[in-house]
Amino acid sequence: MSSLAYTRTRRSVGEQAVKYSLFAAAAVSVLTTILIVLSLLRETIAFFGDVPLGDFLFGTKWTPLLGGDQQSFGVIPLLTGTLYLTAIGLIVAIPLGLLAAIYLSEYAPPRVRKTIKPVLELLAGVPTIVFGYFALTFFTPEVLRGVFGIEVNQFNALSAGIILGLLVLPTIASVAEDALASVPASLREGAFGLGASKLQVSLRVVFPAALSGVVAALILGASRAVGETVIILVAGGQVARLGLEPTVGYQSMAAFIAATSRGDIPTGSIKYETIFVVGMALFVMTLALNALSIRLVNRYRQVYE
Amino acid sequence: MKIKMLVPALIAALALSVAACGSDGSGSASSGGGGGGGGGGDLSGKIAIDGSSTVAPFTQAAAELFNEENPDVQITVGTSGTGGGFEKFCAGETDISDASRPIKDDEEVPVCEKNSVKYGEVQVANDGVAVVTNKALKVDCLTTDELKKVWNKGSKVKSLSEVKSSLPDTELSLYGPGTDSGTFDFFTDEINGEEGVTREDYEPSEDDNQLVTGVEGDDGGLGYFGFSYYEGAQDQLNLVGVDAGDGCVKPSNETIQDGSYKPLSRPLFMYPSEKAMARPEVKAFMEFVIANQADIAEASKIVSLTDEQATKAEAELQKAEQGAGA
After folding, report:
1. Residue ranges in chain B whose pLDDT is less than 70
2. How far apart are CA B84 and CA B71, in angstroms?
3. Which residues of A touch B206 (CB under 8 A)?
4. Rounded to an integer, what distance in angstroms lies between the CA atom of residue A304 and that of residue A133?
5. At CB < 8 Å, which residues of chain A contact B?
6. Phi and psi of B116, rounded to 5°?
7. Domains (ranges, CATH) in chain B?
8. Torsion sign, CA atoms B81, B83, B84, B89
9. Angstrom distance (rounded) from CA B243 to CA B214
10. How far is B12 from chain A (nearest CA, A)?
């Protein structure tokens, strides 16, 4: 007993050290989040000292960089622009991503899967600026105008949105594939034993069983799209516009932050504060999406064994 | 991004202009490394320059030429815009400020004075704002009033035919510089009558290359930006003349230099601080710029000074040097 107690003391010192260093590592990300919120908060509060909250939330004109009576701080055009571009992206990314995930998990031979999945994940690693110029200099003129003959502006929502979809496609496909692949093989075997076809097994057994993971994949993709900056900055235009016309450009919240901080805004001015206010709004939006994701994941979770 | 894309073009242009220099020999009195104290090659140090994105290509070209003789001098050229440049300059953060308009007496001069930043105002080149359209949008000339109808605050003009019935009715797609740009301040002031006043639904960008891309890409593309950016892309764009009441004038080196391209031509400046001018590398650089302004302007596709303007610039520089010595 006494020798055991001795080793426990020696060991416990090491254990404690490991425990605290692991805690510190975890704390860094939490601390960073808290600090980001605090840094946004100060300018946000200053902003709402000058602009009424109602004007910001419900105003339909966003022209914070202009002077005099032309200046207006209604965030609605930025918000709808962001959601509109995200929606176009998701219309592309969700079907393609899910089909790719089902193929990789259920249909593809192991060798094909081992090749395709890393390539897919490589696509997720392409810098977004490359996607942006791909949209601007190739997809808009060659594909949209050339192949489909659509009369789009040089900077337009359609091109930026579709390429945005290609950007989040690997995220959705990869995470959803992981979820599908982790469904126990016994479920598939049981269904096959009952005479189900491969399609029936994939869609009616495996897919519902993996639903919580699939939903997480979709929300992750949506969060990525909402926060994406560079593609929209390069190819989506910089006009904060209210509307749903896909052939013209729109500004998103993240693109506004990037475009505005690229110019030279005096520190402490109201223009400077708008960057932080929009950042805060974006943060709240992404937070809401993540909270939704957690709820949905819990709701659809199916536990086996 | 902007600077990086410029570099290959500049290197090519510089190679040409340097070759031209060599064959010139003693023909031109004011060019070549001998002008001013630029020829030593033993200078070192750092020169921080920031300001107008219209002047930046000129300054960048000057820095590259200067570095051929003085490789140990590090010159950084920022593009924060004229206003942003003066803000840093008057806070003492930069040595030289690039400007596409004179320093503002009411806003910027007091800041400089408060921080005891003294400076010289040296005109280094001329620039014009070019109004351009897509090749498919055939417009030869617009009056300042017509431009104002298109660009003024609250304008709902959708096509040029609404401004003048003989003009095309293609739906317009408008491009212009962002609100931090000196070109934006200049154009809105001259055309709309008040600086910063503009219609809101145009596509703004602080990156002039993006404006070129937009006008070139849209059938109804119409935009304005520095003449130097038009010269770099003249095959892809249609240049519009401007009529300020004395007939139509298209921007060109001559009409911008002599100011007859009204009202959209203007002088470009570099403001060296007197404190920086006391350093040999800054003094040598500024002397180099004035002595070689014609070659630098050619390399950077900007309009050079007339002889008269060059003489005045030399005088201004000497005044700043004396201030630095005192």
Report:
1. 1-41, 301, 325-326
2. 28
3. 259, 262-263
4. 46
5. 61, 63, 65-68, 70, 136-137, 140-141, 151, 153-155, 237-239, 241, 249, 259, 262-266
6. 50, 40
7. 2-126+266-325 (3.40.190.10), 128-265 (3.40.190.10)
8. positive
9. 25
10. 25
Q: Are B142 and B131 in contact (CB under 8 A)?
A: yes
| Grouped pLDDT means (10 residues each) for chain A, 305 residues | 60 87 93 92 92 91 85 92 95 95 93 90 88 94 92 92 94 93 91 92 92 90 91 90 90 91 74 92 90 84 66
Length of chain B: 326
The predicted-structure confidence for B65-85, as pLDDT tens digits, reads as follows 999 999 999 999 987 778 889
CA-nearest residue to A250 within chain B is B203
In this complex, the residue of B87, B196, B214 whose CB is nearest that of residue A264 is B87
Identify the three-state secondary structure at position B249. strand
- Whether the CB of B214 is below 8 Å from some CB of chain A: the reply is yes
Phi, psi of B245 (to 5 degrees): 115, -20
Q: Which two tokens stand for residue A11?
A: 């060991």
Three-state secondary structure along B39-53? CCCCCCEEEEEEECC
Task: Give, as one character, the DSSP assignment of residue B119.
Answer: B
Q: What is the pLDDT of residue A164?
A: 95
Q: Does B153 touch chain A (CB under 8 A)?
A: yes
Q: Which of B203, B206, B216 to mutate to test the interface with A (most CBs of A within 10 A)?
A: B203
The pair phi, psi for residue B196, each rounded to 5°, is: 90, -10
Q: Specify the pLDDT at position A6.
A: 58
